[in-house]
Design a protein that fits this description.
Strand content: 15-25%
Largest sheet: 4 strands, parallel
Distance between the termini: 40 Å
Shape: elongated
Radius of gyration: 14 Å
Strand order of the largest sheet: 1-2-3-4
Order of helices and strands: HEHEHEHEH
Number of strands: 4
C-alpha cells in the first residue's frame, strides 16, 4: 500500500491496480486509495463483488483461469479485463 500511495502521489495519471486476495476488504481499500482498479484471482471474487467494485468506479481485472469452464464463469462476472494464457480459447468462447 505505501508503494501505491507513493506512486499515486508522484503521478495521479498512472494506471494503478490494487492486487487483493480478499475483495471484501480490497474493494473499499482500493477506492480509499484512489487507484484505478483491483486485480483478483477469479475464484476469490463473486459477480456481486465485481458489480460493487464497478459501482465504486473501479476497473476489475480477473486472472488465474485455466479451463473453458473457468473462462465462462469469469465472463459471466462481467470484469473489465481477463488475464489468460489461452487467448484463442477466450476468443472462441466470446464468439459462440
Amino acid at each position: 500500500v505505501p508503494l501505491l500511495q507513493a506512486l499515486h502521489a508522484r503521478d495521479s495519471r498512472l494506471w494503478l491496480s490494487f492486487y487483493t486476495r480478499n475483495p471484501a476488504a480490497g474493494i473499499p481499500e482500493a477506492a480509499r486509495l484512489g487507484v484505478k482498479g483491483i486485480t483478483v484471482f477469479n475464484n476469490e471474487i463473486t459477480g456481486e463483488q465485481v458489480q460493487e467494485a464497478h459501482q465504486r468506479g473501479l476497473f476489475v481485472t480477473l486472472f488465474g483461469i485455466k479451463a473453458r469452464s473457468g473462462l465462462i464463469n469469469t465472463i459471466q462476472k462481467n470484469p473489465d479485463a481477463i488475464q489468460t494464457d489461452n487467448i484463442p480459447l477466450l476468443i472462441n468462447i466470446l464468439q459462440d
